[in-house]
């Protein structure tokens, strides 16, 4: 079930603690009991928001994958999309990636399924990179989890302000450097480009797939 727009406005303005059945009802000027016709309580509302948020996240990752024909370039775009989502929608990112704050006794089945759809985009990338020999053989789920862990760690540190606190800035550049570093092991059969320049941008995504790269 789609979450009320008011719930998302409350989340963006003040974080998940601001999202309550009463606050949503007040925001849309209905009785406190009205939202309960759709959501049994706050937990049900938060669950619906996490599932919906994961849908937006999956769309962003898939768009990154679809933006390039070369599997390695496309897989890199998925990593960039991951970090950009965390940077542009921090409250949504925190909500969907830290559900244990709201469900300490375990995730709801619907949340696990939503997270699985996001992981499957990464898994698809690994499998297609393996198919062209860009990633070594082996369990693609293991490779996908390693890739996911690296990018998620960077996204989380950026989201927490750690990079900014030590004077490190551009998120895209950091993501490219991370992916290049990971690539020396992950993309073990393809030479990774030097992206240590001040503004590497995305040009290397094209040059790295040129003949002789």
UniProtKB/TrEMBL annotation:
Molecular function, one GO term: transcription cis-regulatory region binding
Give me the segments passing through the membrane: none
Q: Which residues bind DNA?
A: 20-39
* Ranges of residues in domain HTH tetR-type: 1-57
Which UniProt keywords are given for this protein, alphabetically ordered? DNA-binding, Transcription, Transcription regulation
The answer to keyword Transcription regulation applying to this record is yes
Give a single Pfam family match: TetR_C_33
Q: Does Transcription show up as a keyword for this record?
A: yes
Gene3D superfamilies in the cross-refs: Tetracycline Repressor, domain 2 (1.10.357.10)
Protein name per its UniProtKB record: Putative Transcriptional regulator, TetR family
Organism of derivation = Nostocoides jenkinsii Ben 74
Q: What is the lineage of its organism?
A: Bacteria, Bacillati, Actinomycetota, Actinomycetes, Micrococcales
């Amino acid at each position: 079930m789609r979450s009320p727009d008011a719930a998302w406005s409350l989340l963006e303005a003040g974080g998940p603690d601001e999202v309550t059945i009463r606050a949503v009802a007040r925001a849309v000027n209905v009785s406190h009991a009205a939202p309960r016709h759709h959501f049994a309580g706050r937990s049900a509302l938060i669950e619906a928001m996490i599932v919906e948020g994961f849908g937006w996240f999956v769309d962003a990752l898939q768009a990154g994958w679809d933006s390039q024909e070369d599997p390695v370039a496309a897989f890199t775009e998925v990593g960039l999309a991951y970090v950009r989502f965390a940077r542009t929608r921090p409250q949504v990112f925190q909500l969907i990636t830290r559900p244990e704050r709201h469900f300490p006794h375990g995730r709801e089945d619907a949340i696990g399924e939503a997270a699985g759809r996001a992981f499957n985009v990464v898994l698809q990338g690994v499998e297609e990179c393996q198919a062209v020999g860009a990633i070594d053989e082996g369990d693609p789920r293991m490779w996908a989890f390693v890739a996911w862990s690296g990018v998620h760690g960077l996204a989380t540190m950026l989201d927490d302000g750690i990079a900014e606190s030590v004077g490190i800035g551009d998120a895209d550049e950091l993501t490219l450097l991370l992916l290049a570093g990971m690539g020396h092991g992950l993309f073990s059969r393809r030479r990774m480009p030097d992206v240590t320049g001040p503004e590497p941008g995305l040009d290397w995504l094209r040059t790295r797939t040129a003949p002789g790269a």
